[in-house]
Design brief:
Blueprint: H1 14-26, E1 31-35, H2 42-51, E2 59-64, E3 66-70, E4 75-78, H3 82-96, E5 103-106, H4 115-125
Parallel strand pairs: 1-2, 2-5
Antiparallel strand pairs: 3-4
C-alpha cells in the first residue's frame, strides 16, 4: 500500500518500488498482498509489472469490498454486492496480469449486503491454486 497510496503519493517512485519488489523475490519472498483501493488500482498494476513472469512461484492475495469515491480525499465506501465483487475481482486480475489469486478476501464487510451474497461470486471466481498447500511449507 505504501508504494502507491496512503503515505506521500507525491513522492512515490514506481521504478524504485519495482526494484524493491524484485529484490524481495530474489531474497525468497513468495507472498504478496494488495487491494484494489491502494491508489485506486495503482498498487495492483505496480505489483503486476514487478512480478511479471514470476507469478508461478508466488502466492497472490487481493482484497476487495471497498470502493474509492475520491482518490485525493481517500473517501471510500463498502460494496459487497455480487456485481461489485465480480467486477472488482476481474479488474484486480487484469491489473495484476494474473489468471487467479490464491486468496481473495474482503477489505471491509458491507453491512448492507448479507455475507452469503458477497461470498457467492467468490466461489465462482475461485480457481484451484496451481500448487498444493504442501508446496508452501518449508
Amino acid at each position: 500500500m505504501g508504494m502507491s497510496w496512503g503515505y506521500s503519493e507525491g513522492t512515490r517512485n514506481d521504478k524504485q518500488s519495482v526494484a524493491v519488489i524484485r529484490k524481495a523475490l530474489e531474497l525468497g519472498v513468495d507472498f504478496f498482498d494488495t487491494a484494489n483501493v491502494y491508489g485506486d488500482g495503482h498498487n495492483e498494476q505496480l505489483l503486476g509489472s514487478a512480478l511479471g513472469a514470476h507469478s508461478d512461484r508466488i502466492v497472490l492475495a487481493a482484497k476487495l469490498g471497498l470502493v474509492v469515491d475520491d482518490l485525493k480525499t481517500r473517501a471510500m465506501h463498502t460494496d459487497g454486492s455480487p456485481k461489485n465483487v465480480r467486477a472488482s475481482a476481474e479488474a484486480s486480475l487484469r491489473r495484476l496480469g494474473a489468471d487467479h489469486v490464491e486468496l481473495l478476501y474482503l477489505h471491509r464487510v458491507d453491512k448492507n449486503t448479507p455475507l452469503l451474497e458477497t461470498w457467492g461470486p467468490c466461489g465462482s471466481l475461485s480457481k484451484k491454486a496451481k500448487r498444493d498447500i504442501s508446496d508452501y511449507q518449508k
